[in-house]
Amino acid sequence: MASETVENYLKGIYAIEKHLDGKGVSTNAIAEHLQTKASSVSDMLKKLKQSGLVDYKKYHGASLTAEGRSKAIEIIRRHRLWEVFLVDKLNFKWDEVHDMAEQLEHVEGKALSDRLDAFLDFPRFDPHGDPIPDAEGRIRDDRQKQALSTLATKDRGVVVGVLDSSAPFLKYLDHLKLKLGTSLLVEEVIDFDKSVKIIVGKQSHSVSHQFAKNLLIQKEA
Amino acid sequence: MASETVENYLKGIYAIEKHLDGKGVSTNAIAEHLQTKASSVSDMLKKLKQSGLVDYKKYHGASLTAEGRSKAIEIIRRHRLWEVFLVDKLNFKWDEVHDMAEQLEHVEGKALSDRLDAFLDFPRFDPHGDPIPDAEGRIRDDRQKQALSTLATKDRGVVVGVLDSSAPFLKYLDHLKLKLGTSLLVEEVIDFDKSVKIIVGKQSHSVSHQFAKNLLIQKEA
DNA sequence: ATATATTTTTAGACTAATCTAATTATTAGT
DNA sequence: ACTAATAATTAGATTAGTCTAAAAATATAT
After folding, report:
1. Was domain A67-142 assigned CATH 1.10.10.10?
2. How far apart are CA A3 and CA A60, in angstroms?
3. ipTM greater than 0.90, yes or no?
4. Which residue, A111, A121, A127, B63, has most beta carbons within 10 Å?
5. For the structural domain made of B145-219, what CATH number should be given?
6. Count of C-beta atoms within a 10 Å radius of residue A76
């Protein structure tokens, strides 16, 4: 009976943990991620510890327990499956699905996500290129992905994901005719501001370093 | 921004209103329907009136305003569409979908229900035979349905709906090989206890009056 | 190592929705 | 019309989650 709020905390802590290695997630980081106040987070961490979902020592941050992590992964699984459904079956665009998936992910029922998974033919990635955990919570993602900003002049690669899935960024990608699977060539990396000239199809575009940091590429040999 | 709770109140009041004609729905009736206490209902009715969703005079019951009714119908639309999805696409059985639909119905987004509707090919009835309101909230159900309990000996008809969609009742129907569209013949109505002998396919069954009151039939000429 | 800055926690209040118990209105029976 | 029964409302408490402001702990800088 995890409440929606609890689920959002678990998901948030999981997301922050991924970027850190090992150590506890700070109260402030959680507060910022969830757009709430540190005091609320402190309160909630006490409860989550009580429920055995996080390890938590006052003033020393929190980390998910095995149970907490498993719940977080199930929510991420649901979120990404629903996104696939919304895009592939209901024909929404990839910049339109986040808010709906954010609600759908809280609908309970293990059978529901498993059957949805089967109905969608066990997709491995969601519309933004993020890997979808399988029914046992395993996340298998063996792609060698790296930010466009880490490529060098003349490197060639394929778009495999984004680090920013906000609507503005995704719409800009659409504008540049960039989607998952699109090939591109790095024509030039400008030393001055680290902006990148890329060639997509027959078009050449100059994109900012900020942009390049958020686009994930699988480099071609 | 109607909360889930508010949506459930509107749906509940709508359901009760249908059985009554015209007059206000009583506090107690709502409390019973929503499995809550009359005092909670009193509180909530004040708020719903405040929001313009119900007309309400203390001690004299409540009724939906046009806006409240429209919201209620949208929720019923979502509920029934999701039920179709769960049964037709995810292969759940008709006795398994209620709780999931109960959660899914609260997911917001007019585009969501409309696209789901299209994806399902604009179904007119849900898996229990209840009509699905269209995108404009119109409920078109021109079937001449009546409870099995109102049929007479030798009457013939087709199952078109249920008044009780609880899992036990639906499972019993499965057991009797009765589903939407199944033809049956009333072999005999027992005067003593109003139980009904029906013939389904080659099988003859005796069902209680209680049962017969909950099965909706379209009589054949 | 100590003062300062930062982070985190606590204390106390607020909101939405609920409950129980007590009170007040309405309805029904004679 | 008056009393008894029923139904509905209010009063006051409770819970989950949040907030602000104040206090306490930890981290940083010289």
Report:
1. yes
2. 25
3. no
4. A127
5. 2.30.30.90
6. 22
